[in-house]
Specification:
It is built from 14 helices and 13 strands. With 526 residues, the protein is an alpha/beta fold. The structure holds one DNA strand of 7 nucleotides.
DNA sequence: AAAAAAC
């Protein structure tokens, strides 16, 4: 293609030897957007990156990262982007979406240089973490090019960002709030921005960003190329696409609200007060590399994270109330494996791409069924088996039903050894009583999927804990009732030595025997 | 109901 220096061997600055080793996701840096470097047998049939029309420096970076075959969205989108067409991509993260725009953007931009305060391209992301992830993508694939990029996000010094902009950037990666702020202060000109990416449009919509996006789009020249990505194509999204795009090439690579078949799921109904203990059992039982634990509330993220740390787990918290520097450093520590468990709000439910994530736990049933799909979609990537287990309380039947309706399949019920399994309460909500709990919940006795009832141990009929009257918690035990203040950590169950998880001794579920690196995730504490 | 995003 165009004339670029075929950098002989520029700083392989990456911390890891940039060897051709295909170690895709152990890398942690999450360019895992591009799955499966080497497909064993049938790879002849697959397209190659080298056929996509990317020039040498970019191809070299791809090679060095060990990727040979583009994913479907990459194979389909890249040629059109290079042609200058608008693209409407319906794809979720994990399908290789990010690289499907970063790679051709690098190609297009590599022809010329940036001018002061006039970014040549703009990428809009709904969260700061996603913005960072895209920036990493540019670092990885652009390492043999001399292009510059800047991250324009809230929570960090504006002075610094301004300075970078003043020097001129090729790629500006931004969250809407800060971008508009800076624009209104006159620190930014978008008149020369001819390439616009609107990523995660459905999420932008959910988050109420659309007016901001419209405002931003109006700052740009109509003579621009626009790439628009969304995980779903609801009518509202379609309307937006019609508004922003010009004769787009439409590419769809995944159906919305589908649960990847590589994810083994399970759900346990337990008392609210037992959740932390139940989670610990699951964390210890599972032979996992790393896990994300989702909570519905920021406050609960903090409480749970502290609790886990207190119990000897390697855990960190992530939600929007934490300082930006902490957010990034926690995420980085998790990606590098320094932290094994990331406890977070829905900030990380979508888009965040962490290579080789083995487990997702829903400490709370998400309020919206689609969020369930997004959350558990963090695992089971790139053809690898992932595990997603959910803890529900007896009054959450409706939420679970909504999920099962959306995904079209029931979540197999599991039991957790040593933790009492309850049933759905008849009462709509929070109203005391429940059906007399029976063991071996009739709810969904026979897992209809291939043995997903992994951590369940049917034999565990000896569930010790005598049934306590649920909801008796009102006064004591730090009941969730009042307590708006961060609940004291001592609300934890006394560190009564959890009984060793039984049931894995003689009957180890098949998925746990899959080859994984043998480091044990969790300090076998206590 | 909750979460995210600007100062």
């Amino acid at each position: 293609m165009s004339a670029k220096k075929t950098s002989s061997a520029p700083a392989r600055s990456a911390k890891k030897a940039a060897a051709p080793a295909p170690a895709a996701s152990t890398d942690g840096v999450a360019p895992t957007d591009i799955p499966t470097p080497e497909a064993p047998a049938e790879q002849d049939a697959l397209p190659l990156f080298s056929e996509l029309g990317l020039s040498e420096p970019i191809q070299q970076a791809i090679d060095e990262m060990g990727y040979r075959h583009p994913t479907p969205i990459q194979a389909q989108a890249i040629p059109y982007v290079l042609m200058g067409r608008d693209v409407l991509g319906v794809a979720q993260t994990g399908t290789g979406k990010t690289a499907s725009f970063t790679l051709p953007m690098l190609e297009i931009l590599s022809g010329s240089r940036a001018r002061a305060r006039m970014p040549r391209s703009l990428i809009l992301e709904p969260t700061r973490e996603l913005a960072l992830q895209v920036a990493e993508n540019f670092v990885n694939y652009g390492k043999h090019l001399k292009l510059t990029h800047a991250l324009l996000i809230g929570g960090e010094s504006m002075a610094e960002q301004k300075e970078v902009l003043n020097r001129g950037v090729d790629v500006l990666i931004a969250t809407p709030g800060r971008l508009i702020d800076l624009f209104e202060r006159g620190g930014l000109l978008l008149t020369q921005t001819r390439l616009l990416v609107i990523d995660e449009a459905d999420r932008m919509l959910d988050m109420g960003f659309i007016p901001d996006i419209e405002k931003i789009v109006n700052m740009l020249s109509p003579l621009r190329q626009t790439l628009f990505f969304s995980a779903t194509m609801a009518p509202e999204i379609r309307r937006l696409a019609d508004m922003f795009l010009n004769n787009p090439k439409e590419i769809t690579v995944s159906r919305p609200s589908s649960v990847a078949s590589t994810i083994v799921t399970g759900l346990a109904i337990v008392d609210a007060k037992e959740k932390r203990r139940a989670l610990r059992k699951l964390l210890r039982a599972a032979d996992m590399q790393n896990a994300i634990v989702f909570c519905n509330r920021k406050r609960d993220v903090d409480v749970l994270c502290k609790s886990l740390i207190k119990h000897g787990f390697s855990a960190g918290a992530l939600h929007g109330d934490l300082a930006q520097s902490l957010r990034f450093s926690t995420l980085e520590a998790f990606k590098t494996g320094e932290l094994k468990i990331l406890v977070c709000s829905d900030i990380a439910a979508r888009g965040i791409d962490i290579g080789g994530l083995s487990h997702v736990f829903n400490f709370d049933v998400p309020f919206h069924a689609e969020d369930y799909v997004h959350r558990i979609g963090r695992t089971g990537r790139a053809g690898r088996t992932g595990h997603a287990y959910t803890l529900a309380t007896p009054d959450e039947e409706a939420l679970v039903q909504a999920i099962e309706k959306l995904t079209g399949k029931p979540i197999p019920r599991i039991e957790i050894p040593g933790v009492e399994t309850l049933e759905w309460s008849d009462e709509p909500r929070g109203n005391g009583r429940r059906k007399p709990a029976r063991k071996g919940s009739a709810a969904t006795p026979a897992p209809q999927q291939e043995a997903p009832a992994a951590p369940a141990v049917a034999a565990e009929d000896a569930t010790p804990a005598p049934r306590k009257p649920r909801r008796a918690q009102g006064g004591t035990a730090g009941g969730p009732s009042a307590a708006p203040s961060p609940r004291r950590d001592s609300g934890l169950l006394p560190a009564a030595p959890d009984q060793p998880v039984t049931g894995f001794g003689s009957d180890v579920p098949a998925f746990m025997q899959l080859p994984r690196r043998e480091k044990s995730v969790i300090p076998a504490n206590e």
